[in-house]
Amino acid sequence: MDKLLDKENIHKTIGTDPNLIKKIISLYLRDAPKLVEEIDEAIKSGDNKKMGENAHALKGITGYYNTGDIYNMCLELEQFGKTNSMPDKNGEIADSLSRLKDFISRLLEELKVYIEQI
Question: Which of 45, 72, 100, 105 has the smallest count of CB within 10 Å of its CB?
Answer without folding.
Answer: 45
